[in-house]
Design goal:
Layout lengths: L17 E2 L1 E6 L5 E6 L2 E5 L4 E7 L3 H9 L1 E6 L5 H7 L9 H4 L4 E3 L7 E3 L4 E12 L3 E13 L18 E4 L2 E4 L14 H8 L3 H6 L1 H9 L5
Antiparallel strand pairs: 1-11, 2-3, 2-6, 4-5, 5-10, 6-9, 7-8, 9-10, 11-12
The structure holds flavin mononucleotide (FMN).
């Protein structure tokens, strides 16, 4: 069989990779919780809007429904283990902020939900609507504030998310983001812009491509 001959692999949620995030929330009595979410997505730019899909059975579902608030905390390498734990243990059984040694801090722009201090970026969200999809309820929310760790900003105040060592989720496994392959529009960018953004020239990339490919074949990581 040839490499690109197609085989039907059945229906599943195979869209990959996806972000994996730690969603934090709180109730009106001051309790806080975290759950891990892979079904999250950006769905609008102006105003900035996101969705998260949460099963009704989750402890967090009630908190988010009650307050209409949650925080999406991006996950970096240091948070990965805690992220997994928050996705396999329920807040009904343990205080996950405490068991994962995480700090609950007031979330910018929200009244009840807490943010995770140790997260590199926290996105405060207010729920606009809830749609029952079947297994999951989809919370559509507007982003009302975003905070980032100071080390992620350069001298001009620009957010450099590439410094955050973020984690992606691919078919049931966590991966650290690796090699930068390009940037928005790099396929049509001038050589000058390409070099400025990538740190090396297009010519050099092509010149050494065969060496890299050979190295990769021999198991070398670039
Ligand atoms: C990688 C990963 C991704 C997950 N994604 C989702 C999701 O998108 N929606 C959901 O309802 N549960 C998801 N879960 C499961 C919940 O995070 C898990 O049931 C958690 O314990 C619920 O916490 P809670 O009961 O304190 O709310 C995921 C778990 C893992 C490990």
């Amino acid at each position: 069989m040839a490499k690109h001959d197609k085989i039907d692999v059945g229906l599943s949620t195979i869209l990959n990779p996806v972000p994996v995030v730690m969603v934090s929330c709180g109730d009106k009595e001051g309790r806080s919780n975290i759950l891990t979410i892979a079904w999250a997505g950006t769905v609008n730019s102006e105003p900035p809007m996101v969705t998260i899909s949460v099963r009704k059975s989750r402890f967090s579902h009630k908190m988010i429904s009650e307050t209409g608030e949650f925080v999406i905390n991006l996950v970096n390498k240091s948070l990965c283990k805690a992220c997994d734990r928050c996705g396999v243990i329920s807040g009904a059984d343990e205080d996950k902020f405490s068991s994962c040694s995480l700090t609950a801090v007031k979330a910018s722009g929200l009244s009840y939900a807490y943010a995770i201090k140790e997260a590199p970026v926290s996105i405060s969200c207010k729920v606009k609507s809830v749609t029952e999809l079947g297994s999951h309820d989809m919370f559509l929310a507007e982003i009302v504030a975003v905070t980032a760790d100071s080390y992620l900003l350069d001298d001009t105040g620009r957010l450099c998310l590439d410094k955050a060592k973020l984690v992606a989720y691919n078919h049931g496994e966590y991966f650290l983001l690796g090699e930068k392959l390009g940037f928005f529009g790099y396929s049509v960018a001038s050589d000058e812009v390409f070099e400025k953004r990538m740190g090396f020239s297009r010519k050099d990339r092509d010149k050494y491509k065969h060496i890299r490919e050979q190295g990769e074949k021999n198991g070398k990581k670039y």
